[in-house]
């Protein structure tokens, strides 16, 4: 297993689950909100988003 993507509603516990899985499986955890949004809450281009998720 190389990657796990956790998707869900706000407040559902995604970050908590991601941290716990990361610790147990020795995987890095990346929060897509931190990678996808630019200053001023501008969304990255579709090309950038595809590259980020790869």
SSE blueprint:
Layout: H1 14-25, H2 32-36, E1 37-38, E2 42-43, H3 46-53
Antiparallel strand pairs: 1-2
Structural notes for this entry:
The protein is mainly α and about 55 residues long. It has one domain (about 15-54). It is about 45% helix and about 5% strand. It contains three helices and two strands, in the order H-H-E-E-H. The protein has helices at about 15-25, 30-35, 45-54, and strands at about 35-40, 40-45. Strands 1-2 form a two-stranded antiparallel sheet. The longest helix has 12 residues, at about 15-25. The chain is globular. It starts with 13 loop residues before the first helix and ends with a helix. The mean pLDDT is about 90.
Shape: globular
Unreliable residue stretches: none
Total beta strands: 2
Between the first and last Cα atoms, what is the distance in angstroms? 14 Å
Q: What is the H/E string?
A: HHEEH
Number of DSSP helices? 3
The number of distinct structural domains comes to: 1
Helix amount: 40-55%
Strands in their spatial order, largest beta sheet: 1-2
What's the Cα radius of gyration?
12 Å
Beta content comes to: 5-15%
Mean pLDDT, to the nearest integer, reads 92
Please state the structural category.
mainly alpha
Q: What is the subunit arrangement here?
A: single chain
- Report on the biggest sheet: 2 strands, antiparallel
